């Protein structure tokens, strides 16, 4: 019976590993495409933050594609425990927080646009966003490496078919403290983003009621954009919360470690793929940066009036 259990575990692990490699490769392509697409658009705060989100998604998916997927698909260890510890720290802690942190900044941006400046965005908002994003990435780099902290804080991945170091009970104190911080931080992010999303929804509902009589095309366009960006932000928030819930449920109901690992990681890799798909579906039809067009002018040459039928550029 034990051999049959081992065989079934190996088969399921190899299948999930192959699925991880395929899903991660598709996710990398989607997120890289969206990253370059956002670069081609106007450098608004929203698109800058979306570019950052696509980068963090890509980095996590590369770990799945180049390390976690092959370890499970080939059913063999790859590299040293030190390498596994750094990659686990980056994927499970640093980059894992970077996505929801960026999502919070996206929600804050939507909140400020809808509630404070629905028409004109302050010029300094871009600088503030870039500064906040830089600080969050600096923290991500540190939390992914834990520079200055003991090596014991970086635990390697726990796969049943890969030898795991023999740690004592005291060795788990550091990683348990990191996990507690991770949970509380995610809880604060979830409460903050959902609270602001509720306020944004209320404001958009009020604006839609009061602006139905408006015939201005620009007003209608702004309203459609605000709704589209709001829905994108909500969907991205929800898949993050579902990911956290699946991780918790896998630990709660899976009787074996191999079940918890395959379920949580098998779903987690798809979260970053779906996140890229959401950005694609909501933004792939957005036109590139508007090119400047010559303004209407009249040139007089020897009594001849030459008019060029061109429209003046429309400021966004």
TrEMBL record:
Chain ranges of the 7TM GPCR serpentine receptor class x (Srx) domain: 21-283
Q: Pfam families per the record? A: 7TM_GPCR_Srx (PF10328)
Q: Which domain of life is it from?
A: Eukaryota
What name does the UniProt record give this protein?
A: 7TM GPCR serpentine receptor class x (Srx) domain-containing protein
The entry's keywords: Membrane, Receptor, Transmembrane, Transmembrane helix
Q: Which residues cross the membrane?
A: 20-39, 59-78, 90-116, 128-149, 182-206, 261-282
């Amino acid at each position: 019976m034990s051999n049959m259990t081992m065989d079934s575990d190996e088969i399921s692990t190899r299948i999930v590993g192959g699925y991880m490699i395929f899903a991660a490769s598709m996710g990398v392509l989607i997120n890289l495409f969206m990253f370059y697409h956002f670069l081609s658009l106007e450098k608004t705060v929203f698109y800058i933050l979306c570019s950052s989100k696509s980068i963090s998604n890509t980095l996590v998916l590369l770990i799945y594609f180049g390390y976690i997927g092959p370890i499970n698909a080939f059913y063999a260890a790859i590299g040293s425990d030190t390498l596994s510890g750094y990659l686990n720290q980056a994927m499970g802690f640093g980059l894992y927080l970077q996505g929801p942190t960026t999502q919070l900044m996206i929600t804050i941006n939507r909140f400020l646009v809808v509630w404070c400046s629905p028409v004109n965005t302050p010029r300094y908002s871009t600088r503030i966003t870039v500064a906040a994003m830089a600080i969050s990435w600096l923290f991500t780099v540190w939390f992914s490496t834990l520079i200055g902290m003991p090596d014991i804080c970086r635990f390697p991945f726990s796969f049943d078919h890969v030898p795991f170091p023999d740690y004592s009970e005291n060795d788990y104190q550091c990683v348990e403290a990191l996990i507690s911080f991770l949970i509380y931080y995610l809880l604060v992010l979830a409460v903050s983003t959902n609270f602001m999303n509720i306020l944004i929804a209320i404001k958009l509902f009020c604006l839609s009621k009061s602006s139905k009589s408006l015939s201005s095309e620009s007003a209608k366009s702004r309203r459609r954009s605000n709704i589209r960006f709001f829905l994108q932000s909500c969907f991205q928030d929800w898949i993050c919360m579902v990911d956290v819930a699946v991780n918790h449920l896998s630990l709660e109901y899976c009787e074996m470690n191999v079940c918890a690992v395959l379920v949580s990681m098998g779903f987690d890799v798809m979260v970053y793929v779906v996140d890229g798909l959401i950005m694609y579906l909501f933004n792939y039809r957005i036109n590139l940066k508007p090119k400047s067009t010559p303004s209407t002018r009249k040139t007089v040459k020897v009594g001849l009036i030459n008019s060029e039928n061109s429209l003046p550029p429309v400021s966004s």
